[in-house]
Design a protein that fits this description.
mainly alpha, 81% helix, 22 helices, 2 domains, 543 residues, globular
Length: 543
């Protein structure tokens, strides 16, 4: 009988466990490179969309139609699937070896194919009432609701494609292969961009509306996202075999965790969906302005929040199996401090430079100068939610690694209810901008409650160290913000107003802001900044 394989825990060259901070920085840096490519391509995708369709009725229809399958995609890719599958797969790998883990992978993929297949069929059949429920405000514009239903039906099969891709991602992450899974969303964006550039002009010749090219590109992107990961899994020894065993304890653990995990990590997506429902009543363009702003904000979430959480998840799962609460506490604390160091300056930068960023990225083609301040306003109100979103991605998987599903579920429900109350209140005073602010405040509340409860569960989170780091980071970011604001105003006044002038003014302002941030971090002896910069420079030297 084959012996169980040893646990796959990171270690130093002498065989001693690597420090949590070094482990996370190393893995998060690798994930960050791939994620940056994916997020930049995602931003490029929206730039192409804005150039072709601006913030008009066709773009509003596509955004709402895609929101339904994309919400499930986000839950799977960065939420419930990872939170439920990665700990179970890691446990099987650690305790019983690779063959047992492969068997669990086959069981989970087969279950996903069956479940998502049913959802796709039901979704296509019931697309009309579903879209009418989400986008009732579109009924006031002739043909807009019908177009949204058509696009939703076209994109529903995306669910099955992304479910398989995420199962592949979970297995590779559990085996400490982070780069390719983090890169796979880039292939989705490649397919989406190809659909925009190639299929949009061809769609009218096929009797389809031009925006249908974006929907077809979405399906192509989902297929590429799964296909790019298969060769790596195959090399590691995985062979897919259709397998059903409802009594398998590993599968039952995944399925039992996925239900609560979906609810527990669904707050952001449900909140965004609530925004869509309310935004459809705010007139043409509101849905698209919010989407374009959210894409810019999502770049640092994906780069910093997701990469840190993805690197931490297998480590937390392994430590939970060993019942090493001290190790979990150190890992979570390290992840939080790294998240603050990266996301606080990003939040401040997005608020201060919102309008020049939006203008540079989107203002061309069908995206007019009137759309720029509207999108920038949404971005400014969304930005504070960066910290909440990223903290939740660290805190929630910690509870699931401890097999605690009730706590994230309860806090998520609280966050959703709070978001609904805030949005219904703020939309009356601030219009669509209130929807962005309500979402950000709800995300911060969700993160705060989760971290407070996790602190009690783990016996602390090195709170004094995290608080000291947060204060220093806030002071450094304030200095950076002043440099960015005054620097951009002074530089832009001396440069031409065209694209080249705007790009140079923004680049110089960001460079000045980063220099001030580095100087402030040095004065404040901010060790988290030194660690992050040391890791970046080491990667540059190796490259």
């Amino acid at each position: 009988m084959p012996q169980p394989e040893p646990p796959l825990s990171p270690a130093s060259p002498r065989g001693e466990p690597a420090p949590a901070a070094a482990r996370l920085a190393r893995s998060a840096g690798l994930i960050g490179v791939a994620t940056m490519m994916s997020r930049v391509l995602g931003l490029a995708r929206d730039i192409v969309y804005a150039w072709l369709f601006g913030a008009g009725n066709q773009m509003d229809a596509f955004n709402v139609a895609f929101k339904i399958p994309n919400m499930v995609r986000d839950l799977f890719a960065e939420g419930a699937m990872s939170a439920a599958f990665v700990p179970a797969f890691t446990r099987a790998l650690t305790q019983h070896g690779r063959n047992a883990a492969w068997r669990l992978g086959n069981l989970v993929i087969t279950a996903l194919l069956l479940v998502t297949g049913v959802i796709v069929v039901v979704g296509i059949a019931g697309a009309w009432p579903l879209v009418e429920l989400v986008a009732h405000g579109f009924g006031a514009v002739p043909g807009k609701l019908e177009l949204t239903v058509f696009l939703a039906r076209l994109m529903f099969p995306f669910l099955t494609l992304v479910a398989v891709a995420v199962a592949f991602m979970g297995m590779l992450n559990s085996l400490r292969h982070f780069f390719l899974p983090a890169l796979s969303p880039a292939l989705f964006n490649v397919g989406a961009i190809a659909g925009a550039l190639v299929l949009v002009p061809l769609a009218p010749r096929l009797g389809l509306p031009p925006v249908a090219g974006l929907a077809l590109g979405t399906l192509l992107g989902g297929l590429l996202q799964a296909a790019v990961q298969w060769p790596a899994l195959h090399r590691l020894g995985f062979r897919y075999r259709p397998l059903i065993d409802v009594h398998d304890p590993g599968l039952r653990e995944v399925l039992l965790l996925m239900g609560p995990a979906t609810i527990g990590l669904a707050a952001v997506q449900i909140n965004v969906l609530v925004n869509v429902v309310l935004a459809t009543g705010q007139g043409t363009g509101a849905v698209s302005w919010l989407q374009y702003a959210f894409r810019i904000m999502y770049l640092p979430i994906g780069l910093f929040g997701v990469s840190i959480a993805t690197a931490a998840m297998p480590v937390l799962a392994t430590l939970a199996v060993r019942e090493d609460l001290g190790g979990m506490r150190q890992t979570v604390s390290s992840g939080l401090r790294m998240m603050l160091m990266l996301n606080v300056p990003a939040t401040v930068g997005l608020v201060v430079l919102a309008e020049p960023i939006v203008s540079l990225l989107y203002e061309r083609g069908s995206f007019t100068s009137a759309d720029t301040p509207a999108t920038a306003a949404a971005l400014m109100f969304y930005a504070p939610g960066l910290l909440g979103y990223s903290a939740v991605k660290i805190a929630s998987p910690s509870f699931y690694a401890l097999r605690d599903t009730r706590t994230p579920v309860a806090t998520s429900i609280m966050s959703v209810l709070l978001n609904v109350v805030l949005n219904l209140t703020l939309v009356r005073a601030l219009g669509y901008r209130g929807l962005a602010l309500g979402t950000a405040l709800a995300a911060l509340a969700n993160a705060g409650v989760l971290l407070w409860l996790l602190r009690r569960r783990l016996g602390g989170l090195d709170g004094g160290r995290v608080l000291l780091a947060a204060v220093k980071i806030a002071l450094a970011s304030l200095a950076m913000a002043m440099a960015a604001h005054w620097g951009h105003a002074a530089i832009a006044a001396r440069l031409p107003a065209g694209f080249a002038g705007r790009a140079l003014a923004l680049a110089l302002a960001i460079g000045l802001a980063m220099a001030v941030l580095a100087l402030a971090a040095r004065v404040l002896r901010l060790e988290e900044f030194d660690q992050a910069m040391g890791r970046v420079m080491a990667r540059v030297r190796r490259a």
